[in-house]
Design a protein that fits this description.
The complex is a heterodimer of chains A (1050) and B (371).
Chain A lengths: L10 H10 E10 L4 E7 L4 E6 L3 E5 L5 E5 L6 E6 L5 E6 L3 E10 L2 E11 L13 E6 L5 E6 L4 E5 L4 E2 L7 H6 L3 H4 L7 E6 L6 E6 L3 E6 L4 E7 L4 E6 L5 E6 L4 E5 L11 E3 L10 E7 L7 E6 L3 H4 L3 E7 L2 E7 L3 E7 L13 E6 L3 E5 L7 E2 L12 E7 L4 H14 L16 H14 L8 E2 L9 E6 L3 E6 L6 E7 L12 H4 L9 E4 L13 E6 L5 E6 L3 E8 L3 E3 L2 E6 L22 E3 L2 E11 L6 E5 L4 E5 L3 E6 L4 E7 L6 H5 L2 H28 L7 H19 L3 E4 L12 E9 L8 E8 L3 E8 L12 E9 L6 E7 L27 E6 L2 E6 L4 E7 H5 L3 E10 L7 E9 L3 E6 L5 E6 L6 H5 L2 E2 L4 E7 L2 E8 L8 E2 L2 H5 L9 H9 L15 H9 L1 H17 L3 H21 L1
Parallel strand pairs in A: 25-35, 40-42
Antiparallel strand pairs in A: 1-62, 2-3, 3-4, 4-5, 6-7, 7-8, 8-9, 10-11, 11-12, 12-13, 14-15, 15-16, 16-17, 18-19, 19-20, 20-21, 22-23, 23-24, 24-25, 26-27, 27-28, 28-29, 30-32, 31-63, 32-33, 33-34, 36-37, 37-38, 38-42, 39-41, 43-44, 44-45, 45-46, 48-49, 49-50, 50-51, 52-53, 53-54, 54-55, 56-57, ...
Chain B lengths: L1 H10 L6 E8 L2 E8 L6 H11 L7 E6 L5 E4 L2 H10 L3 E8 H4 L42 E3 L9 E6 L9 E12 L2 E13 L4 H5 L7 E5 L2 E2 L5 H10 L3 E7 L11 H6 L1 H4 L19 H6 L5 E4 L15 E4 L16 H9 L21 E2 L1
Classes of the chains: A alpha+beta (1050), B alpha+beta (371).
Chain lengths: 1050, 371
Amino acid sequence: MRRFLRPGHDPARERLKRDLFQFNKTVEHGFPHQPSALGYSPSLRILAIGTRSGAIKLYGAPGVEFMGLHRENNAAVQIHFLPGQCRLVTLLDDNSLHLWSLKVKGGVSELQEDESFTLRGPPGAAPSATQITVVLPHSSCQLLYLGTESGSVFVVQLPAFRALEDRTISSEAVLQRLPEEVRHRRAFEMVEALQEHPRDPNQILIGYSRGLVVIWDLQGSCVLCHFLSSQQLENVCWQRDGHLIVSCHSDGGYCQWPVSSDTLQPEPPRSCVPYGPFPCKAITKIFWLTTKQGLPFTIFQGGMPRASYGDRHCISVVHNGQQTAFDFTSRVIDFTVLTEANPEAAFDDPYALVVLAEEELVVIDLQTAGWPPVQPPYLASLHCSAITCSHHVSNIPLKLWERIIAAGSRQNTHFSTMVGLAPAPPQPRARLAHELLRHLLQEWPINGGTSLAPAPPQRDLLLTGHEDGTVRFWDASGVCLRLLYKLSTVRVFLTDTDPNDSLNAQGEDEWPPLRKVGSFDPYSDDPRLGIQKIFLCKYSGYLAVAGTAGQVLVLELNDEEAEHAVEQVEADLLQDQEGYRWKGHERLCARPGPVHFEPGFQPFVLVQCQPPAVVTSLALHSEWRLVAFGTSHGFGLFDHQQRRQVFVKCTLHPNDQLALEGPLSRVKSLKKSLRQSFRRIRRSRVSSRKRRPAGPPGEVQEGRSRAERTGLQNVELAPVQRKIEARSAEDSFTGFVRTLYFADTYLRDSFRHCPSLWAGTNGGTVYAFALRVPPAERRMDEPVRAEQAKEIQLMHRAPVVGILVLDGHSVPLPEPLEVAHDLSKSPDMQGSHQLLVVSEEQFKVFALPGVSARLKLKLTALEGSRVRRVGAAHFGSCRAERYREHHLAVLTNLGDIQVVSLPLLKPQVRYSCIRREDVSGIASCVFTKHGQGFYLISPSEFERFSLSTKWLVEPRCLVDSAETKNHSRLCDRPGPEKASGRARNSGSQSDGEERRSGPVMEHALLNDERVLKEIQSTLEGDRGSCGDWRSQRAAVGVLLSCCGSVSSAR
Amino acid sequence: MNRSFHKSQTLRFYDCSAVEVKSKFGAEFRRFSLDRQKPGKFEDFYKLVVHTHHISNTEVTIGYADVHGDLLPINNDDNFCKAVSSASPLLRVFIQKREEAEHCSFGVGSLSRRRRPLALREDGPRRRTHLHIGLPHDFRPVSSIIDVDILPETHRRVRLYRHGCQKPLGFYIRDGTSVRVAPQGLEKVPGIFISRMVPGGLAESTGLLAVDDEVLEVNGIEVAGKTLDQVTDMMIANSHNLIVTVKPANQRNNVVRGSRALGSSGRSSDSTASRHSLPAAHVLQNLPPDEMESDEEADVVLEGVLEPRLVPRPPPGSLARVNGAGLAPGLHSPGREGSVQRLLSSLRSDPRHSLALPPGGVEEHGPAVTL
């Protein structure tokens, strides 16, 4: 035991460790938690999102991501890019301004904070005098105009934030320069809008909240025009040519004001309340955008009828007689419209609407009829329904990858592709690739910067299980976590609401013309549908999914849609236990008869555990066609080839009433503790209110409050105590099955190895079953047999969290079918196998078949930390190409990540990763097979980390202001396609047409001469059939994917 | 096996004053009874045993199985009285020839564990004295204060030995602050304290720990800088053999060392009142390493052979054994069972529940046990 305390003194080993291990938090996937601000740079084509915790995140082309964190932990309120520059200014809710810039260092851009500044008024002024409400970066990039609550507009010089006090535009100065007839009204209050004239940098527009809008000449310090409306001003839009101003107001209306320098407008010429005549909510932001066709786009936020739709979060788009109110499921933080970036262009020609809602980013294609949503390549809303579990599969074979993408693309037909594609080619192979291509080529309008990150070396899948019974398949190979396919298990069950009902409920001719957009839907029909465990076999395409109500589904990937009945089996895990009364939820009711399934993973077997407790562990062996599942009552083995239950085993201690009754009995204690905590809160509130000097300080009151104070102190001082007690067999939930593991190893004797199933429980028991699986030719005829061969009771009785068998070379046994697919060396069956049992407190290696203890590492006894997650991973050296070591990656309850060597169980390195208070973060952690991992830093974000020096997925990108300065969308082509081509390296391909391809494919292409030729020949063939350049691109894509398979097959 | 189990139960209610004795010598059993209140002298008992077993011309040692399943010696009046009075309901007596007893010893876990002969062991000329003095390893270790010679006088290292005892450890810990002497003067530092004792628990009944004692180390690992939860987990992880170093709240009962200890112990001579870093983990190496290891838990391994579908529980024909022992191939037949196995199996109150072994009752390197 002591030997583990000694630090390693072997310098060679220490050097090797440096080559093998390195801890980095590389990238955050998903949608930022609690976004609070949106910014967009039309010249850089980069989107910025600020959060309430003070983070700013920049997104450009897929793979181009930056993140910065303000030192202050304050919410970012506004983000403004300086026009045409790689710099941006943020305003925090503590009224401080921060200047950030993207600087190129070592060929890679980095986001860093340059300056910060807090506006100070004249001495003695009220704090509200300098409370910034609007920020306007001037097009000269030298000046920043700051509108404040007092009505003054302050001017600061960039980049040093030097306040130019002599240029302040105070409301008094404006008042003096107004004509007499408007001067008498208190028309000022805070500045609501600040805009620069689209053509003339010497004019700015100032809008005050009481309804006055003036155009101010900066040179002459005079009012050029003024407009006065009767309603409170919310926001203003200045049309591209500067001849029209559109203001929106708190009564839900907007007004258009023609700008002409000589005339004054006593009355607004036209006021429009789009959702009148009944009282409406305010329109908080409006865009008035011109098009070549002539009819403008009007896009505004809010303005819904107050009584009936006041609670909706809507953005309305009006164009050419069409009107749609996009209805978001969460609050709209801000939105912007992507338009022609070149200020010289005559028309706005909007092409996309970008909406930042509280829980997701929604982009609407404004060029395609019907305004379909665009699927963003990043900022995926991971938490559309709460994430309940996750599962990572490394190195997916290309074939399965393509099939999943093909299944997914058929689900995404309602999304805009932003780029038209030729009809799918008839050949099945090419059609698949076509689907793949559609994903890859889907034009994303926000595509600034260049990603320099190397192509991901392999295809990785991250599967997340959700509360609503869905499993989402994410492409986790690179920086962009992107949804490939969504599987719903709801169809198998009868639930209260039919999923199709909600979609059809919406009528056509309803007013307002609401349309639901976005995928965020936190409401689950039935919590029992929640997914708890996922297991995917990447070679066979078998998937096992288990949920909250004890349901276990086995699914198979099918490229065609199908209608079949799902076979149901009940697994009675209690067997002949008596005196049991399950008080938890009922099991789910399966839908009888044939069910229609769309292409993709289709369930064929449903095993329902009885009692229907949460499935706590799951294992699938696709070679033996077996699936094992465990709950708090026991575990079972199911043969999904013969659709027959092999055995069940009850692990319940007879005295464990808590587990017998189900989760309800725990609610009681929860209720009790809740009540206690509420009482405590109330007591503290009452006493704190009393403590305030509210009334006359009488003697009695004084005495009482003092008594209360001491009482409160007693409550607070009651020390937190921890009971020191050894675990015993009588503890509750000892039968909870924590882990299941299939292995082909020496269970009985050291001469014959056989299939085996291992199960570990919360009470520190490991069960081993020897399995007899009939050979393939008699697989359907003979039953699978199982008999218990071993039962190990760890005397420290800590929960078993991991079981692993090491082969003769001390390498973990390969996955099922891995050897059959020649992707792994076959395990060494000559030497003696070893069993590794990881409990929360100890790591223990036993020799097989005798199960005699060899080694152990008592983690808890040494450090006081407990194992929460463990995964076997191999680590490559960054120096030696082929050198690999197998180790355990371990996450403890303190949030530390450690690497423990195999098979000697020596701690190698330790890094602190997650805050120890972040229980959900620790619980969500998942390790990959290559020493990386993911954990949730918020309900909607995965942090990706890497322990390996070799496997590192992190954004490396370049944003060059010089290159992008004159980068504008040309008018002759429909916008986005053109723009994207320029950002990319226009490769060495034959036809010179621009192209985009996935990084994987690009890599394969450039390295393979033969494939290039193939592409050319196919291109020529294709060109004959359809001359459109788009179809050529499609063909390139087809071949790209083909060559991908070629190169992977070699 | 089952026969004896039932028989002992039926006999239990015959006569409360009589103690049934089942005496075993080799493969032979003898049954007789003793008066619980007046068991008599050891000399008489020895003669009775020798007589009933027809042993002549050879010295024997007598042992009995106590309630915890330990084989303890009967070699004087006191332990004979204890054996009779604690027999419930059956007193199992084991008789071995002296020569054979050389290889097997009494004590904790001796029923199932090969113990390394210690240097203290008595050698050949043992008949020199008539007085039978129990050897150190013949006694069951109990909770004790250890390492008195190397610790500062203000500290106390307590070993809570939970062996075979069904008592809970029975104490609670809390966060607190303690005052330390630092170069700049007194400073407050966070510490872990014992907050409560469970009445009747091990901690209370030993009297070695008290409320408000500050916990400094757990099994040689300093707790400074660790959270309450970490220390809790460490203590629970070591609960089978918990060694806690405390600074007692009541400093008046400290062990006062002679000048010898102060002078000779290099470690403690430089310890001043302000020094609070303890002799670290290596201190525990004073204990023989074997001792440390052997006190650790051993995992129980059951080998099952029956179809689990038919028998959900570990089947009666399955073999239970502990770590480290290979299974002799012929051991399945009941005829070859040794006395030890039989004893152990009869100790099980509920043979159906395979894992309800008395903690520590079965330990490392033991032979196989048939249920």
